[in-house]
Amino acid sequence: MHRLEKVGNILAEQTKMQKTVEQLKGVTALEISEMLSLARNTVSEDLNKLLTNQEAIRVKSRPVLFFSRQELEKLYSCVFDDQVTVFNHRSRNSRYKIEDVKTLLGMIKNTLKK
Questions:
Q1: What global pTM score does this model have?
Q2: Alpha carbon distance 89, 12 (integer Å)
C-alpha cells in the first residue's frame, strides 16, 4: 500500500468514528503523522493531494482540520459538489471553523429528516 493510500485510509477511519455532528472534530496532519510514524510535512503534502483529488475536505482553522469527503457523504447521505464545499482548498481567502462544518452538516441532517 502506498503512503498516500495509508493517509487516505487513516483519514477515512478517523472521519468514520465521528458519527454525529456533535462528535465532528476532524483530524490534523500531526495526528495522522503520529499514527503512521511519518513527518508532519510529508502527511500534509499527501493531504493536499487528497484535496486536489476531491477526496478530502479541509477546514481552515488552527490547527487545520481534515475530513474524508467520501465518509462525510456516506454519514450524511449527501453529495458535496464544488458549490456546497465552500470550505475546501480553493477557498483561500475565507476563514472557516469547525463550527461552520457542523452547521452545514446539521442543516443537511435536518433536511434529510423532513
A1: 0.75
A2: 18
Query: Hey, is 96 helix, strand or coil?
Result: coil
Q: What is the pLDDT along the chain (114 residues), one digit of tens a residue?
A: 799 999 999 999 999 998 877 788 889 999 999 999 999 999 999 999 998 888 998 877 778 889 998 998 888 777 776 533 334 334 444 444 566 666 766 666 554 444
Q: How far apart are CA 9 and CA 60, in angstroms?
A: 21
Question: What is the rounded distance in angstroms from the CA atom of residue 44 to the CA atom of residue 109?
Answer: 30
Q: What is the DSSP letter of 61?
A: S
CA distance 62 to 72: 21
Q: What letter represents residue 71's amino acid?
A: E
The end-to-end CA distance of the chain, in Å, is 42
